[in-house]
Amino acid sequence: MPKTNLNANTHSWDEFMSIDSSVEVLIVDNNVCNDKCLTELDLSLFTSMKVLEVGDYSFSFVNEVKLIGLNQLERVVIGQKSFTKYKNDAAYDLKRHFYLKNCERVKELKMGCYSFSDYFVCEIENVPSLEVIEMGELNEKSFNFLYASLELKSDCERMK
Hints:
- The strands form 2 sheets. Strands 1-2-4-6-8-10 form a 6-stranded parallel beta sheet. A 5-stranded parallel beta sheet has the order 3-5-7-9-11.
- By secondary structure, the chain is mostly beta strands.
- It has 2 helices and 11 strands; from the N terminus they run βαββββββββββα.
- Strand 1 (about 5-10), helix 1 and strand 2 form a beta-alpha-beta unit.
- It has helices spanning about 15, 155-160; strands at about 5-10, 25-30, 40, 50-55, 65-70, 75-80, 95-100, 110, 120-125, 130-135, 150-155.
């Protein structure tokens, strides 16, 4: 019986669409998935995914990113100028939302400068293992979620 490849490195939208849902490490190359028709990225089917890495200049037209209920997810790394239409600036778009929720093992969320620079919502909720959040670079213009309010929520906090 052939072994499923647990790592996927994608260089195009067609490759991305053909990835097996059992992948554990998903790497998206630079300047990929910039089709205007691609407006939502819901990765909830990738229930075995442990690592998500997105390169620079990718997913420009995605309005909504959902990383929800990925109980194996440990690490999310987004390069520079991804998930934004404004590669060297910032704006806000009420339709653009980022969700990282109910991912019990995620320890690390990192993103490069200008990524998500026009997103209006950033919700990080019920991620009890989260140890590192890095948005942009210290002492550099970064503009990550510039017009969004950042909320960190936990079910434990609600019980107090």
